[in-house]
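Duplicate of #3305? Posting structure anyway:
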């Protein structure tokens, strides 16, 4: 994940204020909740990155398949 994407995701968290260099300048009224929301944003983004990477692998090797639960 590049720094630009990290800053955009951080800025999408209500109450979290981030400058153009990525420095946090404010965390709102509930810092613990704000931090959890930031973690959730990054986890969601990481999952999407993995999903995209695996999608290209499965497209290249169509004989591969995901196991069913």
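Output from current build:
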């Amino acid at each position: 994940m590049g720094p630009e994407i990290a800053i955009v995701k951080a800025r999408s968290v209500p109450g979290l204020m981030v400058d153009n260099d990525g420095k946090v300048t404010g965390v709102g009224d509930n810092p613990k909740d704000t931090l959890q929301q930031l973690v959730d944003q990054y986890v969601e983004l990481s999952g999407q990155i993995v999903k995209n990477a695996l999608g290209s692998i499965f497209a290249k090797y169509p004989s591969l398949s995901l196991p069913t639960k």
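Confirmed duplicate; merging threads. Strands lie at 17-18, 24-26. The chain has a mean pLDDT of 85.
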